[in-house]
Amino acid sequence: MSARAGLISALAVAVIIATSAPVLAQDPQDPVDRLLGQPISAVELQVEGRPDTSAPLLALVDIKPGETFTIEAYRRVADRFNQVPRFQTVTVLAAERPTGLVIIFNLEPRHPVDRLEFPGEETGLPESDLQRLVRDRFSGLPAFTRLGEVEDVVRLILEEEGFRSASVTADLVRFHDPDRSTLNIQIRAGQRTTIRSIKVNGQSWSLEMPPLGPALNDEQIAGVLTYIRREWEHTESAVTPQEVAKIRAATKSRTKPWTSEDLQKPFDLKTAKAK
Predict the structure, then answer these.
(1) Is the pTM of this model over 0.70?
(2) Which of 43, 133, 147, 194 has the fewest CB atoms within 10 Å, measured from its CB?
């Protein structure tokens, strides 16, 4: 049997940091059972499949050549690696080689998220809004959060914004030296839900906002608009009462409600005509 074939066929166990104790496969035909009790000829250490001989990590391995291969032996060392915050997963492998049985501890480092991206064109919300909303929910970047939890949070954010059928898929792109990763969140927002009316006790209510023009003077409207344009990290210019008066005069003959499309059209204050 080649060393590579022996390594693959004699896969012992993957120990996830979240678990306290590794569990050996129980299949009676598992080749690991055949290796238990054999003398260990050597112990190797790898980080993401690459040999590692750093003294601090090797100091955690107390298995000596000549010891027999037991569950307790590899569990003892794996538990020590579990306590090292740098690593996320410990995989214990057993390889049969011409020199004898070799135990390999393969360590996978954590790759903290240092970049958040929203690829695609169906995100529903502008990327700047998504960046802000996600960071607000996680108090920063979700550096070590499980992907499933990230997907649930983003799906909830979109639902709160009216996208009730959005699909969200998150994945990580890992980089090395230093270990880090980019979190990609793929979104298909779907159609945004719009509430047209509400029925209470059998009576329907329109959600059109009642006109407030007669209730507020030019100074009050200018003050509200200026507040909105300068709060929440906005830095737009102030709105003057004179500007409000000109818009009132230009639109005084309008009788139908304003729509969001109407309000997004440009308005020329020089000619004071709505376009």
Answers:
(1) no
(2) 194
